[in-house]
Amino acid sequence: MAITTNFSLTLFFFFFFFFFFLFPLFSNLGLAQVEDPELKTCKHQCLQQHQYSQSDQQQCLQSCELYHHLKQEREKQIEEETPKKKDHSHYHQHQQEEESRERQEEEQEKQEEEDDNPYIFEDSDFHTKVQTEGGRIRVLKNFTQNSKLLQGIQNLRLAILEARPHTFVSPRHFDSDVVLFNMMGRALLGLVKESQTEKFILERGDMMPIPAGTPLYIVNREEREKLFLAMLHIPVSTPGKFEEFFGPGGQDPESVLSAFSQNVLQAALQSPIGKLERLFNQQNEGSIFKISKEQVQALAPRRSYWRPFSGPSRPEFNLFNRRTTYSNEYGRLTEVGPADDKDNLDRLNLMLTLANISQESMSTIHYNSHATKIAVVIDGRGFVQIVCPHVSKAKHEKSGPSYHRISSELKPGKVFVVPQAHPFVLMSSKGQNLLVLCFEINARDNKKFTFAGKDNIVSSLDDNAKELAFNYPSDLVNKIFNRKETFFFPLESPSEERADA
Amino acid sequence: MAITTNFSLTLFFFFFFFFFFLFPLFSNLGLAQVEDPELKTCKHQCLQQHQYSQSDQQQCLQSCELYHHLKQEREKQIEEETPKKKDHSHYHQHQQEEESRERQEEEQEKQEEEDDNPYIFEDSDFHTKVQTEGGRIRVLKNFTQNSKLLQGIQNLRLAILEARPHTFVSPRHFDSDVVLFNMMGRALLGLVKESQTEKFILERGDMMPIPAGTPLYIVNREEREKLFLAMLHIPVSTPGKFEEFFGPGGQDPESVLSAFSQNVLQAALQSPIGKLERLFNQQNEGSIFKISKEQVQALAPRRSYWRPFSGPSRPEFNLFNRRTTYSNEYGRLTEVGPADDKDNLDRLNLMLTLANISQESMSTIHYNSHATKIAVVIDGRGFVQIVCPHVSKAKHEKSGPSYHRISSELKPGKVFVVPQAHPFVLMSSKGQNLLVLCFEINARDNKKFTFAGKDNIVSSLDDNAKELAFNYPSDLVNKIFNRKETFFFPLESPSEERADA
Amino acid sequence: MAITTNFSLTLFFFFFFFFFFLFPLFSNLGLAQVEDPELKTCKHQCLQQHQYSQSDQQQCLQSCELYHHLKQEREKQIEEETPKKKDHSHYHQHQQEEESRERQEEEQEKQEEEDDNPYIFEDSDFHTKVQTEGGRIRVLKNFTQNSKLLQGIQNLRLAILEARPHTFVSPRHFDSDVVLFNMMGRALLGLVKESQTEKFILERGDMMPIPAGTPLYIVNREEREKLFLAMLHIPVSTPGKFEEFFGPGGQDPESVLSAFSQNVLQAALQSPIGKLERLFNQQNEGSIFKISKEQVQALAPRRSYWRPFSGPSRPEFNLFNRRTTYSNEYGRLTEVGPADDKDNLDRLNLMLTLANISQESMSTIHYNSHATKIAVVIDGRGFVQIVCPHVSKAKHEKSGPSYHRISSELKPGKVFVVPQAHPFVLMSSKGQNLLVLCFEINARDNKKFTFAGKDNIVSSLDDNAKELAFNYPSDLVNKIFNRKETFFFPLESPSEERADA
């Protein structure tokens, strides 16, 4: 019930606004894509808002993309649920059997697909853990459910928090360490410390590690835009599982306190049971709910003459502002890792990277020596290719493994994993700046090795070894592998003639 | 056979002494308890011993409690075993079937109970690994056998060593790191170091981490009291399993040496096989056996003019003597953890805490951010309540989880686990000082968060967030949550009138 | 096909050379062994090479032993495969059934054997991962496949690389950290660093830790001798599994690059597809292949006036040259561990030890407190005995476990595991210097405890405890356990008379 209501409300909210916007066709790789009219209108509307700054517009556009995605997924869910209902009421038995057979086949195919794509996650791999009128929290399934090859990251869970404009995400604590990244929007984060609440303003790109057990609340400060936070959960004692505990609360969210016996509560809180029952009966708005503009403003941190330290804190790390590791006109890579944050990222052995690939460009072909990447597309479209020895079905009579390419289209919200030591490449589409957030697990001692660009593996090999390895003259190999750009390149193919010249 | 003999001996030992003692009725929480007459006599006898100091008397009383417990458990075991025998001899088939059905039902119920109580362990969850006339070692079953939720501590095993007065616990080494805590009695611990044996006097409350592989022996130095040691085993290479290796020994305990081939032993020990056979044939007393007063005295460490360093060592940490973390008239909490012992507790990521709750008092409602507690009740009676999102069966249509209360009566010897991030509370009964030892696993970076008393989570929330979270005026919330005491409170409920006044 | 060709080639290579050599009979422990004539000839030939230095001769002899081993194993393989083929063509059904029954019984027996020998690995426990004309890589099966007791080392895999004279082992990287040890031969190791290749000369006994992902190639520099490298793989993210990735390559070994799509390769390497196809079509020699003397010389590192740092590097640790931990006329023990190599061995918590036991000698009976040993016999023959509480089948009515002896003959190439805390002993045969390489897992905080020789456990016990533990006068115990030698002893049994005198 909650889903449908919310759905129509949101539709209303969107139809109220929009018009038309021409989406750049995704023609480069031979794909023609027709954009949803609703999406077009949404985007057009963004550009019409004259009071918006350019970055406001940018955010608005991205919000459209993410919303659109969300909608498609819901429609898919509805479709999937429909035939099941039919099973029990309308259809004749014969039809049922046929359907069931078809479904079996579909499942088989899906199974095969999954076996072929152990590292790519679809929207349907998320389940909705929390859904209220104010927003929702979607959690990606256990990585090992997708493939046993992902054992190395089986303890982790990725969640995406979506909060509608001007909402309050109720105070809670998790039994997991959490690393939070603001993908889109402006948030206020309240962290309960020893005797007070420290308030952080989270801009887009801000990263915050939050130790397990720390009570936190979140506010979407924007009046118009949704807030999207990526949350990597690192469970402390139940591998691959995490739970929410609401302290302050009532009926919904339910307060953990109300589960204690009456005599405990009375003695602990020094209050008669009637008073306590009144307290724990009030909250029924859910764990994410709409608040007024005034309430948003009241929650804003304020520095004052009397309380100079109660003002807003800034998270230590914003991935947009970090000094780049690699940067040229084709892309930028920024990182924050164990060496930057001894307290948290080092303990968690985790690095966050943000790859920002200019339109029609690519990263070099490369691999991480020790780190496995959990990547989330924040913005733009493109492709990923991962090369993998595991899934090859070819019987090899050769002296080494065969390799198989896993590739996937990328669009906002898409999640993929790149296991350590596996070579891969990221590409952006025409007119699409591709923005990918990566959680790099096991980041300590990690090194990146490249296969193209300055100081790549092949050009670093001595000539004699090169010649033996390729069974090809080293000067010809060198011509192919020596190129001056580092890490990011334009996605252009030389013509046979030009290159030979 | 060994069990029955030992049992009658012990009965004799107790009936020889006792009389009558009025046990304070456990009336506060509506429970009327009738004390076993044997237990009464035992306790009375303790109080009659005029040569005893007050602390001697205290220990004697506690020993009665633990003994009583032990006896009840044995009786239960005997009861459980009886019907099984009948199955095979006396009953008609019909009766057997009925019994078997009943037993199935019982098992089902037990199953459900276990599902409901993943964190509480009964006496029947221990199995007796060693049983001799001199004492026994009981080992708690694997934690994950109780519940998959305990995966985080699945590597650990808890054992309780009980040694009768004036006994010798034979030299052995374990393939696990061991943390030993003296719950009751006075012991001598011999640790074999590089070229000599270091002797430690272990008083009640002493804690000793012992690295895997270290040969050790133990002596119960008391002529009248049993010795109770809690031993947390942290297996090094076989998760959740540990083994004993007896070097010195003979037939029983069997020496590991006697398993080597004759030529190995002869060459290593430079002795003909006849001599070696004589050596390894002598010991047949078992791994814990009675020794004379003179033998106990001969084992005592002595400092002399010639050997100034051969005197007794004292363990570095006694949990009764540590500076308290929290202390008031309602209770005291002492701790020793990674920061105190870089060599062992830090490596094991372990903290030991001792909660000493005055009669009719309680701990605050609180949780540990990272540490999971394995708790053993040493003395007194009371209750524990743990709040848990996992076992709730209610289908929630709400935006968060439902919570379920797990509660259990506490008495000496009871074991329970409190998972990290789960709020819980400890309470003592009327006239009962509750003494609980906790092994806190994953102790580094752990913080305690409270829901009542000074600086609790709710009072540390800013007023605006508080008001939103509870949907209740913040001044009313504050009235309930602001209280000056820290961590320990009296277990008293305010009357409706007084509190409203 | 590859197997047979290689086999005949090698046979040819050996028959071309040899004559006759009298192998010292293995009489000490009652075993009469008849040496294979081929092996005799091989060894004789080694001794006839006048241009060889003494150490050259030594290596040559060892190479014979290893080759012989290899051959026996292949013959076994061929035998095993033969009856299977018959099943499908020649035999009648009755015979098939009988055979199948026999095979079942064999398997049962084998099962029992394995249960009895969880710690001993046979040649048949290796599988051949790579096999080319130039050499092969054999990988030991997962340790936990042998026994669940080996969970503590389940993540690790042991591989043996064998490369024929003057061969090139193609550049590749692994998704595992690798610790490489040169068991026999002289190699060149190329490690691809940031912008160049660092070349190491690996002599026998050299140890090299190689971080995951590092591209490496290997050259067997010897014209006549095989190269044998032990490689311990420590997978980073897929426990117990590792994979090879060939960057430079072609058809065989297949280059990972060729699995990327054409547009990726063209854009990354700035070359038209025709050129790239030519490049990735050349290599078809396999991942280990023969190269010419000139090619070997060309690969040799050279220091020059212009490039003073491009000369050969030496690995930091050679286990033959390390200062000994224990050394006397009966044996030598050298070690390199966490304290010596903060960068790698400390991170991997690993120690390498080399035990060199003189002929007819033994190590003391001892155990490691924390480290589990993975041992590979490099040279010589002898025996190992491990004492183990786990596999005992005897129902014990005693107060402790029973122990069982696991023993195995040792010969070059044999692998065995000694779990931490388990007492064991190594012995060499008559005329056989036993050389054993051990990877010690979980090496930090490890201590060795001995049962014989100076400062052993028993002699370090105080006399009163000793007397109680053995139930035997301490002066008699002391006579047996006090011996002055440390760690290595002669393997001689005193006669009953002499010892009693």
TrEMBL record, chains A, B, C:
rRNA processing in keyword set: no
Cross-referenced SUPFAM superfamilies: RmlC-like cupins
Domain Cupin type-1: 119-277, 317-478
InterPro entries (UniProt xref): Cupin_1, RmlC-like_jellyroll, RmlC_Cupin_sf, Seed_Storage-Functional
Residues spanning the signal sequence: 1-32
Membrane-crossing residue ranges in chain numbering: none
Gene3D superfamilies tied to this protein: Jelly Rolls (2.60.120.10)
Pfam families: Cupin_1
Sequence ranges of Basic and acidic residues compositional bias: 75-84, 94-104
Protein name per UniProt: Cupin type-1 domain-containing protein
Organism of origin: Psophocarpus tetragonolobus (Winged bean)
